[in-house]
Design brief:
The protein has 2 helices and 7 strands. It is of the alpha+beta class. The N and C termini lie far apart (169 Å).
């Protein structure tokens, strides 16, 4: 069971509440837990046998053994320091007993030795009281010593727990930082993956567009090749026509030359005829 501290939220068979006192008491031996219940289901207001251990509304207070309460997983509440201190109470009682012993011993030193039987009996009774007070004083000293040892042990345990708590806080802080870095790394990896997917999608789109362009260019090339083939055929036909035209032009040139010769001959004949007629 975890160590109970002032302000812890606990559960008792009477209900849930807050720890207001933890330690030894005068009404019974051992360690007790003083609880202020949330509901009026307790037995007191923090006072037992005229000793006020803590203050709370009546009847919200109760005392229970450690094994009778369970710590709840709830935030600890701020509570005032308990009113009662077992060690301080023992010290007060020890001082009162020592004062009574001093007073009785002083009275015994000042009294004249009794001569009568009754006075002798009174002296013996006083001695018995002094002896009882001495015994009570020794018992209180033992209780105080045990309480101080218990306090020292508890303080050492508290120091150890505080050191463990500080170490745990450091570990929690380190874990938080590791988790933050892990989340950042995961986010960065996710961003890189998303960027890679985007690049792949862009590359795929570019590939599709390129394929479409290549297909279109191939079709255009086929059209150009077909046009070139038609042009070649037309060029061949034109060359044939040009060859025929050249032959016709040669024939015409020959005919023109023949006509010119005929005209020249005729002109000469006309000139001779004119001369003859004159």
């Amino acid at each position: 069971m975890a160590e109970i501290k002032i302000g812890d939220r606990v559960r008792h068979k009477q209900g849930d509440g807050t720890v207001r006192y933890h330690g030894r008491t005068e009404f019974a031996k051992g360690v007790w837990v003083g609880v202020e219940l949330d509901q009026p289901a307790g037995k007191n207001n923090g006072k037992v046998q005229d000793v006020q251990y803590f203050e709370c509304p009546e009847p919200h207070g109760l005392f229970a053994r450690l094994e009778k309460v369970a710590i709840l997983d709830e935030p600890r509440r701020d509570c005032p320091v308990p009113i009662y201190s077992f060690e301080a109470s023992l010290e007060d009682r020890l001082k009162d007993a020592e004062q009574k012993i001093l007073e009785l011993e002083k009275n015994q030193g000042e009294n004249v030795p009794p001569a009568q039987n009754g006075a002798h009996q009174q002296t013996r009774a006083e001695e018995a009281v002094v002896q009882q007070l001495h015994e009570a004083n020794e018992h209180l000293k033992q209780e105080l010593s045990a309480a101080q040892e218990s306090k020292t042990t508890l303080e050492a345990q508290a120091q150890t727990h505080e050191e463990k708590l500080a170490l745990l806080k450091q570990q929690v802080s380190a874990l938080k930082e590791s988790a933050r870095l892990s989340i950042a790394h995961t986010k960065s990896a996710a961003d890189r993956e998303a960027a890679a997917v985007k690049r792949a999608q862009d590359a795929e789109a570019t590939s599709v567009a390129t394929t479409a362009t290549v297909t279109q260019l191939k079709q255009q090339l086929i059209s150009v090749q077909e046009s070139l083939q038609g042009s070649k055929e037309a060029e061949a036909a034109l060359q044939n026509k040009l060859g025929t035209s050249d032959e016709q032009l040669t024939t015409l040139a020959d005919q023109v030359q023949s006509l010119e010769e005929q005209l020249k001959t005729s002109d000469e004949q006309l000139k001779e005829q004119l001369k003859t007629s004159q």
